[in-house]
Amino acid sequence: MDQILPVILCGGSGTRLWPLSRSGFPKQFLVIPGGDEKTSLFQQAVLRVRSISNVCFRVEPPLVVTNEEHRFLALDQLRDLKNNQSTLFLEPSGRNTAPALTMAALFAIGREVNSKSDPILIVLPADQVVSDDDAFIRALQKCICIAQEDSIAILGIPPASPETGYGYIKAMAPHDSKFGLRVDHFVEKPDKFTAQKFIDEGNYFWNSGIFVLRASVWLAALKEFRPDILSSVKKAWEGKAEDNVGDAKFMRPDREAFNLIPCESIDCAVIEKCPGSNFVIQMVELDAGWNDLGSWDAVWQTGQKDELGNVTSGDTLLLNSKNNLVYADHRLVGTVGVENLIIIETADAILVVDRLKSQNVKHIVNELANQKRDEKNLHRKVVRPWGWYDSIDEDGCFKVKRIQVKPAASLSLQMHHYRAEHWIVVRGSAEVTNGEEVIFLKENQSIYIPRGQKHRLANPGDTLLEIIEVQSGEYLGEDDIVRFKDTYGRS
């Protein structure tokens, strides 16, 4: 029985979906407006590949490739799915997808599952949507059959419009295999005229970025086409470190060696070079309502619309308005007589943009970066491995936060040079280290932490702990933290 190892590529920042997606909480971890309101895009990807097991092959827990900064976001969302045995490969920096897949292949080949470990890898991005899961599973099963023949399979999407943001696959008459079409060649993102020509001609498909192949086939193809990437990835792999977090595993390559790896995509490094080579590549058509959500307009296209074409989420009131996407996170959002708008409301930022120009949201993100504004990277509510905090008010010399701590979790043992803190317990119970003292607080009890004092907040109970923190001092930045001990490896 063949082993199937899903490789979920969970990097990227999703800047075109700002202000909902930010570098500290990118789009793959979001529950997208107008879609499945229970699971994130990342969780949906995990659930899809989990569903393809049959009598011919067994699907292993996924290998998730993500940024070091997002490790606990990914881990928490996996735990929500009861998928606790996953391995998370943590990149210290973004080097694009070819190095990520190479690490996954080395991991797959090196596992001691049996005497000959060469699983079939299902490589898919974590930030796509599919409306027809059954069609997706059938297409993946065909891809697996192709990979069992030591060929490479890629999913191609029938083009619905002359889209210039996707690469294209030209697929020809059926291959010797009964499962796929022969890939003639690839075309990088074309202009509008060329894209329309492709659609008129036929036999052209959007490149989904979803691949299925054996680990050994990828390594052999990379050795053929980009041996420099293979050798540099091997150096980073040889210096890897591992640590277990419950049933899950974190794997970290050597940071210095990883940062020297050439930055390249799977397509450019290998896939586009395969037609006409010794590496057979076939395409399986996927007609399943696929979308990579590359803009707010794409979110509108995939969302559930009312009779006037509006997609809404949250507390909204739309009058005489049509073909809009309106997302309200913290307050009522109302519209009167507007069309084709994207309106996204969050606690600290509101976006209003012409729906047909929503690709240009990236320019706002670039300007936020130029101005060094926090809104580019973080929401007002910031997720941490122990829970979250929400900065609800501030004015010069004070800041007020609402802090929630998970059961049995704790913040780091830390101190601040420039601020003092007052903590008031409003829900649950707290264990507070304040200098040499350890004090237990219940609801409606409080404590003062002087500036320069070592301190720690922990939740000793089995229910959520919530406190209100009032900071006061001459500087209240998040970088005024000196960590001495930390459960999550940040000290």
From TrEMBL:
GO terms for molecular function: GTP binding; isomerase activity; mannose-1-phosphate guanylyltransferase (GTP) activity. Transmembrane segments: none annotated. GO terms for biological process: GDP-mannose biosynthetic process; polysaccharide biosynthetic process. Its EC number is 2.7.7.13. Keywords: GTP-binding, Isomerase, Nucleotide-binding, Nucleotidyltransferase, Transferase. Residues 316-368 form the MannoseP isomerase/GMP-like beta-helix domain. Pfam families: ManC_GMP_beta-helix, MannoseP_isomer, NTP_transferase. It catalyses: alpha-D-mannose 1-phosphate + GTP + H(+) = GDP-alpha-D-mannose + diphosphate. It comes from the Bacteria. It is an enzyme of class 2 (transferase). InterPro entries: GMPP_N, Man1P_GuaTrfase/Man6P_Isoase, Man6P_isomerase-2_C, ManC/GMP-like_b-helix, Mannose-6P_isomerase_type2, NTP_transferase_dom, Nucleotide-diphossugar_trans, RmlC-like_jellyroll. Residues 372-486 form the Mannose-6-phosphate isomerase type II C-terminal domain. Residues 6-306 form the Nucleotidyl transferase domain. Belongs to the mannose-6-phosphate isomerase type 2 family. PANTHER family: MANNOSE-1-PHOSPHATE GUANYLYLTRANSFERASE. This is mannose-1-phosphate guanylyltransferase. It comes from Polynucleobacter duraquae.
